[in-house]
Design goal:
The protein has 505 residues and is an alpha/beta fold. The protein is 26% helix and 28% strand. Among the domains are: 125 residues, Rossmann fold (3-Layer(aba) Sandwich); 119 residues, GMP Synthetase, Chain A, domain 3. Helix 9 links the parallel strand 14 and strand 15.
Length: 505
């Protein structure tokens, strides 16, 4: 039955035993009835703060039960939620809020200077917990992303805030599923998949912060059937001592998905050996939903390195530099087109899509198709760095680093990292009077109020030659490939006559 997302807590509260747990974070639990009543109180509190149907509400809360009381409250207002990291530096927050113009910000840092805000510890006292009715939000979510220019953008999902309680949810999330969410809810996949588990009437076990052994303990304790990891998490679980990893019974798992970053083939093979190929699944696609590829471990063993075939909701093409489709086995840029046409699944606030005149769109990746239609990814066309599943745009980091008084110019590249996939490396040209080590030592504190911590460079390289030509352009790919080659050969950067290396402080 198709119902508003706002009504999901009440729907299951009326149909499940009174003490049925909907959400668990550590020792904190919420029954379906508690989720319904608490969300109703919050919705009325938000309305009292001026939230109306059709508005946006920014949520800056850490993982926890309150987050879900808040998201359902936003839908009960007929509004659209946008999830932000609660620790976002004020500069980044201001840029997003300027684009979004939310009616209310819930949580976040006090220095975000939001026009209308409720603190993270707000308690909606004095408001009724009775059912509340409002129009269904036109957009069920509006997630944020950096752009290729380093400027943020907001991706409005064109799906309305409704769900079908009679059908299984996406990616094998079945009715009454036991689902583990190990990821931060300000990322698109954890936000979608956690709520999908609740839409299915399941039990959501959330992690406040990822810990490899704790994830295994929770899978055993709560009989978890479905989980989505990023490869960094899977690397950390595999890095546990054998006796620790094998201490826990994970036989309840039916599906282990991974997405958001490339998976090292050797690591995927280890997980397939451990859990069996039928349980390991991978998705490749974007928040925009122009198209997605999915593959399970059985298929992957026959097409090693592939990210799967295009799904039923869209089409896929590989287009060469001449603008024409390439043959199977040849490399080109990956383009998607939804079956319902260009722009049917989303639109941006603060950016324009990379869309051809015929409507086909690119995520900025290159790849190839084999004779069976399986997609294999190559290098990314864009300069984006993928660190542990998080997108980092060099232009944003370069702008922040270049603001340091000792820096003349900066180029940021992503280098291979065995745990995170890539790490952030800054190549810096200093002002004449600056001291290299002093700049590197000071950079962490200097960037603290400008960039989220995961975007900070993890190593610095000081060069004595100009990084950009007179037009301001830079040969970023060459710079990255040179350093990646040095790293592979020496496991460290060689100290060249024109270079000095410094670790980040």
């Amino acid at each position: 039955m198709l119902i508003p997302m706002a009504d999901v807590p009440r729907w299951y509260a009326e149909r499940k035993p009174k003490d049925t747990i909907a959400i668990t974070h550590g020792k904190d639990t919420l029954t379906w009835e508690q989720l319904e009543r608490n969300a109703n109180r919050r919705a009325r509190a938000f309305a009292a703060k001026g939230v109306e149907p059709g508005d946006f509400v920014a949520i800056g809360l850490p993982n926890g039960n309150t987050f879900f009381e808040t998201s359902f409250a936003v839908w009960k207002c007929g509004a659209t939620p946008t999830s932000l990291s609660w620790r976002l530096p004020r500069g980044e927050a201001a840029a997003v809020l300027e684009i979004l113009r939310p009616a209310l910000v819930v949580g976040g840092e006090a220095d975000w200077n939001a026009a209308n805000r409720l603190p993270a510890d707000f308690v909606p006292e004095g408001f009724s917990d009775e059912p509340i009715s409002n129009p269904v939000a036109r957009y069920w979510k509006a997630m944020t992303s950096g752009g290729s220019t380093g400027r943020p953008k907001v991706i409005l999902d064109h799906g309305p805030a409704v769900t079908d309680t009679a059908a299984d949810q996406l990616l094998g999330i079945t009715r009454d599923v036991s689902l583990l969410n190990p990821g931060p809810l300000y990322h698109n996949a954890p936000f979608i998949l956690s709520h999908a588990g609740l839409f299915a009437g399941g039990h959501l076990t959330g992690m406040v912060k990822f810990d490899a052994e704790e994830a295994l303990r929770l899978i055993e304790t709560n009989g978890v059937q479905w989980v989505n990891f990023v490869p960094t998490m899977m690397h950390r679980i595999w890095a546990l001592p054998d006796e620790v990893r094998n201490r826990y019974d994970v036989s309840s798992l039916k599906i282990v998905f991974h997405m958001a970053a490339p998976m090292p083939p050797w690591l995927k093979e280890k997980w397939i050996e451990w859990l069996g190929p039928e349980r390991i699944w991978e998705l490749y696609g974007g928040t925009e939903r122009q198209g997605a590829c999915v593959i399970n471990g059985v298929e992957w063993m026959a097409h090693k390195g592939s990210v799967g075939k295009i799904g039923d909701t869209a089409r896929l093409r590989i287009i060469g530099e001449d603008g024409n489709d390439v043959s199977p086995g040849e490399t080109g840029e990956i383009y998607f087109l939804p079956n319902d046409g260009a722009g049917s699944t989303y639109h941006y606030l603060g950016a324009e899509p990379k869309r051809r005149a015929d409507g086909w769109e690119s995520l900025g990746d290159i790849g190839r198709l084999d004779a069976d239609g399986y997609l294999y990814l190559g290098d990314r066309l864009a300069d984006m760095i993928l660190r542990g599943g998080a997108n980092i745009y060099p232009a944003e980091v370069e702008a922040a680093v270049s603001a340091h008084p000792g820096v003349r110019s900066c180029v940021v590249v992503g280098l291979p990292d065995p745990e995170f996939g890539q790490r952030v490396h800054a190549i810096i040209e200093l002002n004449e009077t600056a001291n290299a080590q002093a700049v590197a030592d000071d950079m962490g504190e200097f960037l603290a109020d400008r960039l989220s911590r995961y975007k900070h460079p993890e190593s610095f390289e000081i060069v004595s030659v100009g990084l950009r030509d007179d037009s301001g352009k830079v040969r970023r790919t060459l710079l990255r490939d040179e350093r990646a080659a040095w790293l592979k050969e020496n496991r460290a950067f060689r100290i060249m006559p024109s270079r000095v290396t410094a670790k980040a402080g």
